[in-house]
Design a protein that fits this description.
The chain is of the alpha/beta class. The chain has helices at residues 17-32, 54-62, 85-95, 153-158, 162-184, and strands at residues 8-11, 38-43, 70-73, 99-109, 116-121, 140-148. The protein has a six-stranded mixed β-sheet with strand order 1-5-6-4-2-3, sandwiched between helices.
Amino acid sequence: MQPVKTQEYIDINKPFAFRNFTNAFTRLLEENIPDHEDIVILCIGTDRSTGDCFGPLIGYKLAGTSYEGVSIYGTLDNPVHAKNLNETVSTIYSTHKNPLIIAIDACLGSMDHIGCITLGRGSIKPGSGVNKCLPEVGDIFITGIVNISGFMEFIVLQNTRLNLVMKMADVTSLGIRYSIWKAKNKDAQIVDATM
């Protein structure tokens, strides 16, 4: 199985988006799980902005999932955002032994990448699209490109269509759920779903 590139783009409007996301994310997990003991899914964002609720929506959708050694931080009820990110990261490192942190956040990008989910190895810098200075976080990142960057970012995030964010959150949360199940059950085959 070939390794994931530095960053992969999954367009949710193209055929096989779910399969492509799941296969890439499963490879990332398989490459990184042996070096860590716990998996922490850190969903960053706020429910006060449609564009920035990508992370909390995924946290909400994953909250009912229970796998041994897997924890979710950041939901619609308890979002992780600029004001509590440092505290949450400190809690993660003091609570979990050698965690593999999967950082999830919305982002702004170019017009041709709107509706794409990106994922890869490494950390993300939350809030950089709206000029916030927050720490880099994550061993694996997943971002949802929800709108265009470059002009009045706060207003752009506020006026992002919830329909787009919800579709991206559906593909991502289902893909994460399946990939973690597959990583915990090594005999499973890579998904052939045509979503």
